[in-house]
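Take our chain:
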Amino acid sequence: MIPEELARRIRYLQIFTTKAANDFLAGEYKSVFKGRGVEFDEFREYQPGDDVRAIDWNVTARYEKPFVKRFREERELTIMFLVDLSASAKFGTVRELKVDAAAELCALLAFSAVKNNDKIGLIAFTDRIEKAVFPGKRVGHALRLIREILCLKPRRTKTDIAVSLNYLGHILPKRALVFLISDFQAEEFRKPLRIMARRHDLIAVTITDPSELSLPDVGLVEFVDPETGRTALVDTGCRKIREGYERKRRDFYAELNRFFRSAGVDQLAISTARPIASDLKTFFKHRREKRRS
């Protein structure tokens, strides 16, 4: 049984994200995420204004009048969500936890995908594969993915992004649209990410919380790493310590952004402090402009 609070959260996400998908994300989603190509649809008699290059000369000769080939986009996509559920996903100090932000993003994309008849699947991971849900369609399948993200109790606490990328390579040989959702506090994932970016349309989704980017001036504080359990006593009253911490965080994300660009990976940055839908719409806009340039 799902706890009542989680059931209400899932129901809210279904109502809110379905409305967003229907209202202002539907057209954006379809225009940004294209199908795999085009396939033959039918022959039609030539009409003034048709591209003469589309004339099929064999059919034209058979019927003694010009016919053109018509094609349609092969629309159906397979979308995979790779969601980091390590212990740091349970962190958040503003409007929601990182895991809640991940669930909301997946819900927005999943209901947009369902509306467009695309398949959606999930790989939830820590330093192992915690849960895999193979691609499927329909609203019930989308709800199952959201429920797994919010209700799954991971058996491990650490992060190994490479594990999820390698697993994806084994179960999904055909090209897919992949959202890798993590805070990227991990090591040794760059090589497998580059490889996967060549096989799939990979989008890196970074989740941050404002309190991770700067330290408040609150005196001596004991910090605990949720993934390793290690502790550190930090004097947040020291300006040099606060500035050094902020500089390291800026450098970390700047280097991460450079890596994504070099790997040809688009990046979507979301925060526990901002509405996810607005970040997603901004991403759609930037991706569409990038495709046009």
Summary: The chain has nine helices and ten strands.
